[in-house]
């Protein structure tokens, strides 16, 4: 029998030690529950001695989060351990996690103690913790910069004292995969020599790893440790934590799952990973939202671009067969929606895929015309190309002649230093109903202008929503043109987009708004009819 991998999450303790992060009780509780649903085995809820707030949060989590073991951190002293126990004693499965540094640097400069004293403190801390709780984890802080023989001595002593999980932290993110492998292997062998082989095999005794990311190696080091015999992995969601952070658990989990073939072969037995991977992205987003730490777009697994394909060749490959450029199905980690994003490198395959998934049928000539217009009108002027801009091109090809509205005149007044609000007046020629004139008052000149247009065309606030609006400059210096993009939504849920270009950004915005409205009305009136047939040119 071989033990499953235990995932120990310290988002609420080491993660909360990230600079600038402070979670309130409600947020900690919500994250704790999300971690439990994800299938995390051990949640380190906090370091109770550090503040009454931390104590309360650990206590609350211990009482309310069911399923995982709830751990509390304590230095190797009586007070810390007693307070940690007070905080977690209400848990279904409590764990005291006690630690002391074992490296000479820490002993000399921080603890100001000799090796024998530290060995004694470690042993006593474990014994005391065991009086309260049968599940005791011991961490040898700065293990990777410790003398190996001394580290092994401490490990053997705390195991003898009754600790059931022995954590070997790379506290300062100093080790590299091959070295860490050797260290863990060295310790496994020492434990086997001391008669603990069976305990290691059946999971009664575990070597654990806890890697920091100072050299960007936290995940690689953790994986290397598993190959050497570690069966508990510590880390955080999104890899948050002290300095450069901790090993990102979602990356460790997905590496083990995706390369299960490799790990199982190397280990000589089937690796067991019991995590509900579909909860990874929602949990990651919850942690990011509550900690205020954004996820970098190119972050593995949970970054916004982790499964986004923009280049034409890649898009073509993924549309034909997902596995050409994807090693993980994005849905398996909780992503929803299409991975194909429109961008300046998108080719015909991506355009066809997008339009077809919105219900359009068309022949190659139509696709070629869409492609040309996309290249000329959109791709170099927008940074983010919503699908509506692409659909707008298709509508232009078939419906432009029936577009109703044209801006014939406009005046917008915005005065600095006045209490009067910006004011706009527009005149629009409506092919069906003739000339329409209206005014608008807004928070800014563009808002006033949009209100005037909406009123002139009879849209109420509830019948038209502005979903997206952005302005950019095309070109540089005083010759630059303003380029405006808008996305609007009708009360029926139909969305269209429009682009407008002009030296005057208010006029560019008005052009974009009117274009979107023209497309919206055409789509409402003729969309169903057009979608019912194959479009040809
Ligand atoms: O990085 C570290 O060494 C720690 C220990 C307290 C486990 O966080
Ligand atoms: Zn740490």
Commentary on this structure:
The chain is α/β, with parallel strands linked by helices and 537 residues long. The protein folds into three domains: 6-291, Alpha-Beta Barrel (TIM Barrel), CATH 3.20.20.70; 308-396, no CATH class; 400-531, Alpha-isopropylmalate synthase LeuA, regulatory domain (Double Stranded RNA Binding Domain, 2-Layer Sandwich). The chain contains 18 helices and 16 strands. An eight-stranded parallel beta barrel has the order 1-2-3-4-5-6-7-8, surrounded by seven helices. A three-stranded antiparallel sheet has the order 10-11-12. Strand 7 (206-211), helix 9 (218-228) and strand 8 (232-235) form a beta-alpha-beta unit. Helix 2 crosses helix 3 (78-88) and helix 16 crosses helix 18 (505-531). The radius of gyration is 31 Å and the shape is elongated. The protein starts with 5 loop residues before the first strand and ends with a strand. 43% of the residues are buried. The mean pLDDT is 95. The protein binds 3-methyl-2-oxobutanoic acid and zinc ion. 3-methyl-2-oxobutanoic acid is lined by residues 14, 99, 139, 141, 167, 169, 171, 210, 212.
């Amino acid at each position: 029998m071989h033990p499953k991998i235990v995932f120990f999450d310290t988002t609420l303790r080491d993660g909360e030690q990230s600079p600038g992060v402070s979670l309130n009780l409600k947020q900690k509780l919500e994250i704790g529950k999300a971690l439990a649903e994800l299938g995390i085995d051990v949640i380190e809820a906090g370091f109770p001695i550090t503040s009454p707030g931390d104590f309360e949060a650990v206590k609350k989590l211990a009482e309310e989060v069911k399923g995982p073991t709830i751990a509390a951190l304590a230095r190797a002293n009586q007070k810390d351990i007693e307070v940690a126990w007070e905080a977690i004693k209400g848990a279904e499965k409590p764990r005291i996690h006690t630690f002391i540094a074992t490296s000479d640097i820490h002993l000399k400069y921080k603890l100001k103690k000799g090796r024998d004293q530290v060995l004694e403190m470690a042993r006593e801390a474990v014994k005391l913790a065991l009086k309260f709780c049968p599940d005791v984890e011991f961490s040898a802080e700065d293990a990777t910069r410790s003398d190996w023989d001394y580290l092994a001595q401490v490990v053997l002593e705390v195991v003898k004292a009754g600790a059931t999980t022995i954590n070997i932290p790379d506290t300062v993110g100093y080790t590299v995969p091959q070295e860490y492998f050797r260290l863990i292997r060295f310790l496994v062998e020492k434990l086997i020599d001391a008669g603990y082989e069976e305990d290691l095999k059946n999971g009664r005794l575990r070597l654990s790893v806890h890697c920091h990311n100072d050299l960007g190696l936290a995940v690689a080091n953790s994986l290397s440790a598993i190959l050497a015999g570690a069966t508990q992995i510590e880390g955080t969601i999104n890899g948050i934590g002290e300095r450069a952070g901790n090993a990102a658990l979602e990356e460790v989990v997905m590496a083990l799952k995706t390369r299960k073939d490799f790990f199982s072969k190397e280990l000589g037995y089937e690796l067991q990973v019991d995590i509900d991977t579909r909860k990874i992205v929602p949990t990651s987003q919850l942690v990011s939202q509550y900690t205020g730490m954004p996820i970098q777009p190119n972050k593995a697994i949970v970054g916004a671009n982790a499964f986004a394909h923009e280049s034409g060749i890649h898009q073509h490959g993924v549309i034909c067969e997902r596995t050409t450029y994807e090693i993980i199905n994005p849905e398996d980690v909780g992503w929803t929606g299409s991975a194909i994003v429109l961008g300046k490198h998108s080719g015909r395959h991506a355009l066809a895929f997008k339009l077809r998934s919105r219900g359009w049928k068309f022949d190659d000539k139509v696709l070629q015309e869409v492609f040309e217009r996309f290249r000329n009108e959109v791709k170099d002027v927008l940074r983010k190309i919503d699908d509506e801009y692409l659909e707008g091109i298709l509508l232009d090809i078939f419906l432009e002649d029936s577009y109703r509205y044209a801006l014939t005149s406009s005046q917008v007044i915005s005065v600095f230093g006045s209490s009067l609000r910006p004011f706009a007046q527009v005149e629009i020629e409506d092919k069906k109903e003739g000339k329409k004139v209206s005014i608008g008052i807004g928070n800014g000149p563009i808002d006033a202008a949009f209100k005037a247009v909406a009123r002139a065309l009879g849209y109420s606030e509830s019948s038209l929503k502005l979903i997206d609006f952005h302005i950019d400059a095309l070109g540089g210096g005083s010759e630059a043109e303003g380029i405006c993009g808008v996305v609007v939504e009708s009360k029926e849920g139909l969305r269209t987009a429009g682009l407008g270009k002009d030296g005057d950004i208010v006029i560019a915005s008005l052009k974009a708004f009117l274009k979107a409205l023209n497309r919206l009305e055409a789509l409402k009136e003729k969309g169903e009819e057009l979608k019912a047939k194959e479009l040809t040119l």
